[in-house]
Amino acid sequence: MKKILLGSSALVALFAGAAHAAETPKVTLGGISNFQAGYSAEDKRTTLGNAASHPGAFRNDNVITVKVDGKTDAGLTYGAEMDLEADASRNNDAAASNFNAERTFIYVGGKWGKLQGGSDLGVTKTMKVDAASIARATGGIDGDFTNFLSTPAAAAATQVFATPDLFLDYGTGTLGNEDSQGVSKLSYYTPRFYGFQAGVSYLFDNTSYGQVVNRVNTNGVAGTGIKNIVLGALNYDNKFSGVGVNVGVTGELGTADAADTNNLRTYQAGAKFSYMGASIAGSYGNLGDSMRLKATASDSSNYFYTLGAAYEIGAFGTSVTYLHSTYDAGATKNTFRNVSVGADYKLAAGLTPYAEVNFINYNPTATANDNKATIGIVGTQLAF
């Protein structure tokens, strides 16, 4: 009760001009239920994975979403959202950052913009533009293929950028697991003005999730602890004579806990153009020497770029997206390429069957770990 009273007092002081709520906040229950079958044809499935592994597997993903939205007489909007995990097993997230929920946050907004705090996506994820923005089925180059692709342990000799994400959004592991997306943060979004919108997120560190508070620096281990993190984004979205134009620029800044580690400095820029159901998009992202040991020789060739095209007609949509990335660790330079072809069909309200094929070429400097793979995924998602 004490925590509730203190929190309420702070809100009252911050928004003293806001009157009582005009009506009781609205609570909306929703979510998704997604079932899929994946099949992996890989050159080195038995070498990189389990020697006795089989190529196919079923997978399902379920999330229950609870949204609360209210508005005061003075025009202040407020609310919260909780995306709760509802699967028979925990998420395959090594850091256990979202064991119970994917996202939880509270927000207040008005003509001045929107302020949002909690374990939520930062502006580098919500405001970026890339080829995955137009991908169909599971998300193409930023989709579910990583769940069916064999890979060796995460190390400089094998590490790649398998999805078009900056450092915090990528997470840990060779193929990334997005476990850092839900780190506790405070974000502010400006109103959109003549097509332009800006956003900024602040994080005290990259290891505090939900009720877990970590104020201890992770010293001596390269690429782990980061403090005083600022995420920035600028987005433009407008339409000219029926042609939609969407441009996004995002970046990350942060200080490494360990003195022998480079600070966090990354950026990404992308654009999307659409006309009468057709769209094209692309992006470029650079992570430089972020969170690498300063003693490690590197030419900063840590980057990725994306290209894509999509078409939607009625209930049917299809897309082709491409990712190319290079991970440079001095003596090691690893490349990853993926061409993803996807299609989906809105069979009924909220019910969308889909199919996707990913053609992957994984080339680390250590050629023994080279892998070419074709990952096929078919499934159905129900959104409610």
What key phrases describe this protein's structure?
single chain; 384 residues; mainly beta; Porin; 16-stranded antiparallel barrel; 16 strands; 49% strand
How is this structure best described in words?
The protein is mainly β and 384 residues long. It has one domain: Porin, CATH 2.40.160. The chain is built from four helices and 16 strands. The chain has helices at residues 2-14, 45-48, 123-126, 167-170; strands spanning 26-42, 56-71, 77-85, 101-110, 113-119, 184-189, 196-205, 226-240, 243-256, 264-275, 278-286, 303-313, 316-328, 333-345, 351-363, 371-383. Strands 1-2-3-4-5-6-7-8-9-10-11-12-13-14-15-16 form a 16-stranded antiparallel β-barrel. β9 (243-256) and β10 form a beta hairpin. It starts with a helix and ends with a strand.
The CATH architecture term is: Beta Barrel
Report the major sheet: 16 strands, antiparallel, barrel
Count the E strands: 16
Q: Which residues sit in consecutive blocks of at least 5 with pLDDT less than 50? A: 1-19, 93-97
Give the fraction of residues assigned to helices: under 10%
Tally of contiguous helical segments: 4
- What is the CATH superfamily label? Porin
H-E string: HEHEEEEHHEEEEEEEEEEE
- The CATH class: Mainly Beta
- Whole-number tally of structural domains: 1
